[in-house]
């Protein structure tokens, strides 16, 4: 089971608000996308792969449990869910420090694929050296359970 | 079955790029979040409710089919998936006009809840006048499955 | 007479405000500039030209009829005014959806010129295939009708 | 005849570019809008009025003579065109320092109206103390011609 | 001697660049300012004070050792230098993860003062409960030397 | 003694605020960094050098005397402190026009180095033609005292 990794930590500013005065969900989603990629690159390297370029292919699920407020220090923690031949799935947990409390505000799961930036069309590229056990892509993966 | 509604249309600029030079996924996710809320408010009104304030509670799924590029004109179309007592689920389809082609680049499903901005804690508030058929909130709904 | 084309639609956010708390005119002007170019490219293609690169050469006139507010869904509709050998003039009409009202907030006319991005100095380039009737550029033009 | 006043000076950054790689016209238009208001407030004070809150009501004309580039230091100079009972018209001249050259890149004329931020609906409010000569609003004005 | 605290971690994007194509120093300075305040609030709480509102009063020194690049994951670590009656001085160390290297890119020292947001003029307010040893404000402090 | 040069002038907008509602110090620091570089390039040219590319190497000191507010017109004035073989030190004085007052809000000193953008690693490059008097780099400099 992989540990939580602190991928991003930022403070929320007035420019990040939505018309209701709380933090715009798109700001949180943007950091989730970045955080999963930062954490994912690190997991590929820890698993023995070269540091990949990752492109987002899917967001499996995001749950917004609470509003985030201006002034909150927001933390995006990542954890490996599973790693396949060309794709990696990351869990992203979002916490907000508000006053002396830490609130669990959002939870997400994002899937990335390794891409070869130097080939036309930027095709998917294997994340790990050649001999992952067959079927690794499809198995629910040891990373998660 | 509800029609597609053009909720947002924008052109992608260099400031929207990620380090790979394509459009940052967080930019697309931000517009998806806004588009679903714009479309959702409209669907509530069409169903006979007062125009609600909507807060995002979940992203069920986002699939990024293709990269979006600087200069693309990107369209966020929305369609009602289901409407419950206090929540509404919207499908968001993202298309990019590039040269003379229209590409289907991303697909998403987002859930919003009506909120009462004037009460402390901003509790959920019913979206529709009182007598929706019982169980509407919980039924899987034809829109989705 | 050309129809209105929905070139841009966006929702206004707190980061778009001026010191008075309404939407900064520069934000509206920025979208007008983009909208006219999006609509203009489309008109050139409809008139039989290749999709051009357009650079803004003039804003003939902008009238701000009403303030735009945070939360408004703002629509930039475009219509061909006239098309010449290397330039195209577009009308941009700006509407805001606020609650259940649609307000006509701003009106503009913008002129673009086709540019050749691949030649040094980016000289103007003809928008349409070779045989526009002589004088089309200078006539006040029904270019339109 | 009023002198040129340096209302805004900024340096252009990569985030200000359009898809062609030059500075986005909307960025220039945004600074023009701000510059005219800054210069206009000063002209009202010089003419004996209290410092007003100004809202943009019209852009009479903008001419883009040349592209602005990343790294250019851009100057927005303003000059009074005319001042009426509740409105003021400002000329804005835009210059770019590029290497050891100064280029005249854009020219604009913008009209503002004094607004009373403390009254509902923010009605227009006189810019000058009570006794401007009758008809000042409509005369072509000494400021300009 | 206080430990390093990870106050901010972010990834650098194309919109953060200067005209030379590296990351704009102002972006780094902005995060340094935020990081010192985040770390400073925490240090005040650890020293027994209530969580304060901190306003920046001085940057003692910033040294830029290396350029930061697009795609770098940049970390702002903070450490207490000294805490006085109403002010707190924080050291901020900036590291960039680039490929498999971690580079020490910038070093800074920033001073904040506690402010009372609810009093007119927002006067300085004591950071710690009443009895710090006399002269704590002026002594060079154990934190630093 | 060198004169003050108006390097940057801008108006502060709501998007520039911190969670306390005043202008974020990072915004001021960003403009200081740009202003010193703009003023520094000019000083190098006035001293007989070619217009250099300048990279920030240090902020010697910044003092924030007063908060800056939304709507303030803020001016960044620069003055040469000293110029050495490859580095130049600039003083930056920040003033805010608020109502009919001009407030001295911030003071800074920033050091830049000339860089050769066309060589790998972008090494420092001499700012002035070859024969500066020996020791010019280390002397406190005529520019300042």
The fraction of residues assigned to DSSP E strands of chain A is 35-45%
Query: Which fold name is given in CATH as the topology of chain A?
Result: Thiol Ester Dehydrase, Chain A
Helix count of chain A equals 1
Mean pLDDT of chain A: 90
Catalogue the unreliable spans of chain A: 135-145
Please, how many domains of chain A?
A: 1
The amount of helix of chain A comes to 10-25%
Biggest protein-protein contact in the assembly: A-B, 28 and 28 residues
Shape of chain A: elongated
| Biggest pleated-sheet summary of chain A | 5 strands, antiparallel
Rg measurement of chain A, Å: 16 Å
Order of helices and strands of chain A: EHEEEE
The CATH class of chain A is Alpha Beta
Strand order of the largest sheet of chain A: 1-3-4-5-2
CATH superfamily of chain A: Hotdog Thioesterase
- The CATH architecture term of chain A is Roll
Number of strands of chain A: 5
Quaternary: homohexamer
């Amino acid at each position: 089971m992989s540990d939580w990794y602190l991928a991003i930590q930022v403070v929320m500013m007035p420019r990040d608000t939505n018309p209701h005065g709380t933090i715009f969900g798109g700001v949180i989603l943007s950091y989730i996308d970045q955080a999963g990629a930062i954490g994912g690159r690190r997991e590929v390297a820890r698993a023995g792969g070269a540091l990949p370029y990752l492109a987002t292919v899917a967001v499996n699920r995001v749950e917004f449990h609470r509003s985030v407020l201006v002034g909150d220090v927001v933390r995006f923690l990542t954890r490996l869910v599973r790693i396949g031949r060309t794709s990696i799935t990351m869990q992203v947990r979002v916490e907000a420090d508000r006053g002396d409390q830490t609130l669990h505000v959002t939870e997400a799961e994002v899937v990335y694929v390794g891409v070869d930036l130097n080939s036309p069309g930027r095709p998917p590229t294997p994340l790990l050296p050649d001999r992952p056990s067959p079927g690794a892509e499809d198995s629910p993966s040891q990373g998660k359970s």
